[in-house]
Amino acid sequence: MRLPTLSLLAGAAVLPLSLAQSLDANAIIQALRSAGLNSLAEAATSINSTEIGISLFTALLSGQNVTVFAPTDQAFSNAQSRLGGASTNDVAEVLAYHVLLGNYSSPTTANTIISSTSPNVTIARTFLNASDEVRLEGNKSQVLAWTRQGDAVTFINQNTTTTVQNVTHVSNITLAVIDQVLAIPRDIHSVIESNSNLSAIEPVFGTQTTGPNGDNQALIDVLEDQRGITIFVPNNDAVIQANATLLQLAQNTTALLSVLGNHIINGTSVYSPSITDGAKLTSSRGEELSFTVNATGVFVTSGNATAQIVQTDLLTENGVLHIINGVLTNAESDEQKAGDA
Ligand SMILES: *[C@@H]1O[C@H](CO)[C@@H](O)[C@H](O)[C@H]1NC(C)=O
Ligand SMILES: *[C@@H]1O[C@H](CO)[C@@H](O)[C@H](O)[C@H]1NC(C)=O
Ligand SMILES: *[C@@H]1O[C@H](CO)[C@@H](O)[C@H](O)[C@H]1NC(C)=O
Ligand SMILES: *[C@@H]1O[C@H](CO)[C@@H](O)[C@H](O)[C@H]1NC(C)=O
Ligand SMILES: *[C@@H]1O[C@H](CO)[C@@H](O)[C@H](O)[C@H]1NC(C)=O
Ligand SMILES: *[C@@H]1O[C@H](CO)[C@@H](O)[C@H](O)[C@H]1NC(C)=O
Ligand SMILES: *[C@@H]1O[C@H](CO)[C@@H](O)[C@H](O)[C@H]1NC(C)=O
Ligand SMILES: *[C@@H]1O[C@H](CO)[C@@H](O)[C@H](O)[C@H]1NC(C)=O
Ligand SMILES: *[C@@H]1O[C@H](CO)[C@@H](O)[C@H](O)[C@H]1NC(C)=O
Ligand SMILES: *[C@@H]1O[C@H](CO)[C@@H](O)[C@H](O)[C@H]1NC(C)=O
Ligand SMILES: *[C@@H]1O[C@H](CO)[C@@H](O)[C@H](O)[C@H]1NC(C)=O
Ligand SMILES: *[C@@H]1O[C@H](CO)[C@@H](O)[C@H](O)[C@H]1NC(C)=O
């Protein structure tokens, strides 16, 4: 199928005549340039005939409220090593991760965006839904996550601190200028590997298990293949504390896989705002995971083991990881409930 070009798209867009100047794709590009966002304007122009680019422009011209996280020219320049050799389609995927439906401009404070105070993390669904980058449950598109410090916000899951510099409006489009090009969440293995606090548990995820086709596979590979997954990942301190137990479990793969399976929720990405006091979920081994939120922090319990969640919302292509400070040494499993989960 030949995709319509940007000019066709712009011509076809039905725009309300109440506006003094009608908005079309060229006007958006022009508005980006006027805001000093030349590299973003160039990137947006370069994707004008990709399928993703067309869907983004369609959303921008639809009259709905759309928020665009708009990286500065300096941000694009800093991302040169990442984007320099990228294909047009890859650039389109990166830009799609910067676009949200809705007006995220803060109604109370200038030059910042809406952010939740309690919980501290805001999760927002982007337009990134390319099958080579996102495998969430129900074909959902990828999310962005940010935390709040006073009136400022910081994106989590980014190697470099990323903040909103200012917020302007072009018709119904909110442009939130940011100082980095946001990175798309990677696979579970890459996220664990690049976090030095998770190096002790990493080899444990290599435990051989039976894959969906009955073949032998590393647990990590089975997990990568799930659509929608939540994993409570023990940090290095947790692994040191549980060393004796883990050495014992290493003698019995069945028990080890049960313990690991009780750190996992299969088929659902449970982001931290859904982890509330008294919440109960079912692990991939059919055991109950229950949650406590109190003055000390947020805790997860499986069987008689409890650990504190010390870092939340590490996003992956197919779900989310939360770091915990203990190993949930529950080797029980309930096949019936696991099947229903
Ligand atoms: C917002 O930030 C951009 C990029 O740094 C800058 O060019 C522009 O002048 C700023 N706009 C306002 C209103 O501060
Ligand atoms: C699409 O962008 C290219 C530059 O990347 C440009 O040459 C072409 O004219 C643009 N097409 C439309 C329809 O804007
Ligand atoms: C902007 O949104 C309002 C409703 O919130 C709508 O009436 C108006 O037509 C939209 N503007 C454009 C340019 O689509
Ligand atoms: C856009 O957001 C404003 C609030 O900022 C709201 O009043 C308006 O209804 C929204 N428009 C649409 C089309 O959702
Ligand atoms: C978006 O929200 C901001 C802050 O409430 C408001 O100033 C702006 O007009 C809104 N934009 C639209 C298109 O509703
Ligand atoms: C939210 O989390 C960030 C990062 O962990 C922290 O710096 C900030 O103080 C927290 N804000 C609130 C209101 O708890
Ligand atoms: C983030 O850092 C990790 C490890 O330090 C690296 O593998 C990865 O490529 C970096 N990602 C980006 C987007 O720079
Ligand atoms: C666990 O204990 C074994 C044997 O005492 C030791 O060799 C290993 O380094 C320990 N591992 C950790 C992570 O402490
Ligand atoms: C291994 O663990 C499983 C599950 O906890 C248990 O049923 C089994 O008896 C154990 N096998 C050995 C040899 O200890
Ligand atoms: C997750 O659920 C799917 C579908 O029910 C199943 O095939 C898979 O084995 C489960 N994975 C784990 C790790 O429990
Ligand atoms: C919060 O809950 C955890 C886990 O149940 C518990 O260890 C801790 O003492 C509790 N803290 C307070 C202040 O109640
Ligand atoms: C925790 O539960 C296991 C059975 O799942 C049991 O063997 C163990 O003794 C219990 N530990 C404590 C401290 O209650």
Short structural summary:
This protein is α+β, with helices and mostly antiparallel strands and 341 residues long. It has 13 helices and 16 strands. The protein has two domains: 17-178, FAS1 domain, CATH 2.30.180; 188-340, FAS1 domain (Roll).
Key features of this structure:
binds 2-acetamido-2-deoxy-beta-D-glucopyranose; elongated; 16 strands; signal; FAS1 domain
Task: Explain this structure.
- With 341 residues, this protein is of the alpha+beta class.
- The chain folds into two domains: 162 residues, FAS1 domain (Roll); 153 residues, FAS1 domain (Roll), CATH 2.30.180.
- Helix content is 28%, strand content 25%.
- It is built from 13 helices and 16 strands.
- A seven-stranded mixed beta sheet has the order 11-10-16-15-14-13-12. A four-stranded mixed beta sheet has the order 2-1-7-6.
- A hairpin with a 5-residue loop joins strand 8 and strand 9.
- Helix 2 packs antiparallel against helix 3 and helix 4 runs parallel beside helix 7.
- The structure holds 2-acetamido-2-deoxy-beta-D-glucopyranose (12 copies).
- One 2-acetamido-2-deoxy-beta-D-glucopyranose binds next to helix 1 and helix 3.
- Pfam families: Fasciclin.
- This is FAS1 domain-containing protein.
